[in-house]
Here is the input.
Amino acid sequence: MTRSVLKSSARRRAATTLLAAGLTGLAALPLAAHAAGAAGTPVKGGDLTWGVESEPNTLNPQLNGQAKAKLILRASYESLFARQADGAYVPWLATAYEISPDGKRYTFTLRDNVKFTDGRAFDAAAVATNFEQIRHATYCSSSTACEFGARIQSVEAVDARTVRIQLTEAYTPFLPFAAALELLSPAAYDAPSLKSGGPELAGTGPFILKRYQKGQNVEFVRNPDYNWAPATAAHQGPAWLDRVTYRFLPESAVRTGALLSGQVDVIEGISGNDARLFKGQPDYQYLKGYNAGTPYSLYLNVTYGPTRDVRVRRALLEGLDVDAVIASVYRGERTRAWGIASPVDPYYTAELERAYGNKPQLANQLLDDAGWSQRDAQGYRTQDGERLSIDIVQSQATVRDQRDVLLLALQAQARQRLGVDFKLRYVDIGTYATVRKTGEFGSIPNSRTDTDGLNIGYHYLPVDQGGAINYSRTAAPELRGWLAAGARSLDNAERRRQYGALQKFAVADQALAVPLYIPEDQIAAGRHVQGLGFRSLAQLPENAYDVWIKRP
Here is the structure.
C-alpha cells in the first residue's frame, strides 16, 4: 500500500486537537495549541533560557530513552515523519512511505534540499546508514532501538531519494518506530563521542548543539539554513530565536524560584504545590497536557522475591489507596491511572477504571492465604521468620515529578494497611543496568511515552524477545499471543481489541503492575514568551522552533 502523507489545512488543524476517543470516566486535560498564548507578529532574534528537570543521560538521541530529554534533543535531531493527534503521518524528512502487501518491505521517499548541520547531504545513503547502525548490538544494546534493528533483514539506498528496508517478518509497530527515529549525520558514527553524544553528532534540526556543560546546561544556536519544518509547525524557515539554553535544575522549588526571579524564561515540570503560583496569574502562563504511552506504575517482578506469588501482587493492587496518595502528594494536580495506557493513547481502554483498589480487607486476606500471616515486632508480615519485603529500585536519573515523595507515601501506606515492607533503593545508571540484567529486584517503577502499541510491547514481551523494559519479567504465553496478533494487524479496531484483552490479563488477573498516575507535562513561562506548546501526539513539550520573544 502506498501512503502519500496528507498536508491539508484540515489535517493541520487536527494536529492541535486532543484525541478523546474512549475517555470514559477520565476528563481529558486541555491540550495547548502549538502556539499557545501567541499574540502579534513573531519577532526574530533573542535568547531563551529554559529550566528543565532532567539532564539527558546521553546526548545521542538514538540511545537516550528519557522522555524528558526529548524536549532538548528534538532541537537538533529530526525524523522522517511528524504525527498528528489522530496518529496520521505528516511529511518531514520524508514525503511518503509504501508498505508491501506482505508487510515486510518499507520504502521511504525522502525530501530534497535537506542537509545536516555539518554540511553533509541528507540523502538515502545517510538514512540507510542510520538504520544499518541500529542492527549492531555493540552500538545500541542500551536502547530500545536494538529491538527494531534485530527485525531488519536488509537496508538499501535505491537511489538518492529512496530507502528500502526489508524486515524478517511483518511487524506493524515498525512504521511508527522508523518514522520517529532521530537521524544523525553518517559522520557521527565515527565520532569518539558517539555513545555520549554532543556537538560532533550533527542532525538536521532548527538548532545546532553548540556547548554542553555537564550538570549545568546545554546550549543551542539557530541553524540559519533550516527550511524543512513539518506541517505541524506554526511557521517555515529558520527558528525565530538566536539561542536557546536549557539549564538543568532538578529541584522543583529551584526551578520555580528561577522563573519567579527572572533567572529563566520558561520552566517545565511544576509540582502540585507550585502550580497555583502560575495558574491564572497575570504575569505568567501555565500549560499542561497528558503524555501518551504508559502510566507511571509499579511493575512487580514475577521471577524474584515475594512478588512471584500472584496473591502478593494482587494484594498490592487491591490494598493500596492510590487515589488518596496521588491527591496528597500532588494536591489534585495529577490524575490516577488504572490501566496499561494513558487516556490519550490510541489503545487506551476504560474497562478497568474503578474496578480494583482500596480494598484492604481483601488484600490482607490474600496475604494470609499466601502464608504471610505472622507479624514481627514492627508490625510487618513474616513467613518462616522472613519479613515480607519488596525491593523497589528506581534509577536516580529518572527521579522526577515528586516521584520520590510518591514512593515514600506508598511505603508508609503499605506498612500501615498491609504490613508490607517497601524497601526503596535509588541507584546510579550502572547499578540500574546490572539490576535489570540480573532480575534481582521486587519492583521497578516506570512510565513510557511511546504510542502505537510500542509502549505495550516494550513492557510485556519476554525480556529476550523485545521486552526491553519488561520489569515484571513476565513470559506468559497469553501475552505473547495478544502482542503478536496486535503487531500483525493493520486494523486499529482489531489492535484495540487485542491490547484490551492484554490489559485485563496483565492488571486485573495477574497484577503485573500497579498503575499509579498518568504522566503529564507542565510548562510555566513569563508572558513575554510566545509560541509554547506540545507535540500533537505524544504531547511532550515541543522544542523552541516556533517560540519567540515578545518585546515591550
In short: The mean pLDDT is 90. The longest helix spans residues 492-509. Residues 409 and 517 are 14 Å apart (CA to CA). The two ends are 53 Å apart (CA to CA).
